[in-house]
Amino acid sequence: MYRVMDFEFCLYCPGSRMSMQATKTAIRSFALFYHELTPKHQRKVKLLIRCKDEDIDATREIVNREDVAKAVELRNNTKETLKEALTRSCVVLFPFNSSYSNVIPDALSMGLPVIALDTDDIREYIDLTSGLIVKEETPEQVITDFAHMLGILYFDQEVLKILERGAVDRYEKCFSWGLRQFRKPLF
User: Fold this and answer.
1) Does some domain include residue 186?
2) Are 111 and 146 a contacting pair, CB within 8 Å?
3) How far apart are CA 122 and CA 133, in angstroms?
4) Mean pLDDT of 121-147
5) What is the mean pLDDT of residues 18-23?
6) Highest mean pLDDT among 83-97, 98-112, 113-127, 140-154
7) Distance in angstroms (rounded) separating the CA atoms of residues 110 and 56
8) Is pLDDT larger for residue 11 or for residue 179?
9) pTM for this structure?
10) What is the model's pLDDT at position 24?
11) Is residue 71 a part of any domain in this protein?
12) Which of 16, 53, 70, 167 could form a disulfide with 130 if both were Cys (CB 3.0 to 4.6 A apart)?
């Protein structure tokens, strides 16, 4: 995979498509993962969140409360920020039970595994070869499970590489309709 990353492990979260509760879940999951790392490893991780302009202040407040401001970037909601965020990222965090989103095919086409909540819609596009699926139980359990999966992908680069290959394969199966030239994002 060709990826330009400022950090070794960069996560993307499509906050502009999420409720504030889902955004809070993403930030708290990242914070739980982040605070378990040593300072050396904390410098190697980053969370990029695309926000609606009206949600930036509330999102920043959650980021500050969780003490992860050094590792979180908030971006406004434009196609360029989506393209930039996906290019910089190695994993997409999708902590909401939503119907289809264009972020999923874009991520898969770039070989980005997706960590998502378990829904019928998500299972239609993400399987265990292209991402990790979290069962929706209690809010605290979801946060713990997302954080655990982030730890697995961060510390086991082989699992990440396998999921990257699986993401491209899944994109070709679900979205390219057999046309291999569409390995680029659909923006």
Assistant:
1) no
2) no
3) 9
4) 93
5) 86
6) 140-154
7) 27
8) 11
9) 0.87
10) 94
11) yes
12) 167
DSSP assignment of the chain, as one string?
A: -----SSSEEEEE-GGGS-HHHHHHHHHHHHHHHHTS-HHHHTTEEEEEE--GGGHHHHHHHHHHTT-GGGEEEE-S-HHHHHHHHHH-SEEEE-S--S--THHHHHHHTT--EEEE--HHHHHH--TTTEEEE----HHHHHHHHHHHHHHHHH-HHHHHHHHHHHHHHHHHHTSTT-TT--S---
The CATH number of the domain holding residue 77 is: 3.40.50.2000
Q: What is the pLDDT of residues 26-51, one digit of tens each?
A: 999 999 999 999 999 999 999 999 88
- Residue 176's pLDDT band (boundaries 50, 70, 90)? confident
Region for residue 128 given its phi and psi (left: phi exceeds 0; alpha: psi -120 to 50; beta: otherwise): alpha
Q: Is 33 within the bounds of a domain?
A: yes
> Does residue 177 surpass a pLDDT of 70?
no
Domain that holds residue 56: 9-174
- The number of domains in the chain is 1
Q: How far apart are CA 99 and CA 107, in angstroms?
A: 16
Other CB atoms within a 10 A radius of the CB of residue 44 amount to: 14
Does some domain include residue 180? no
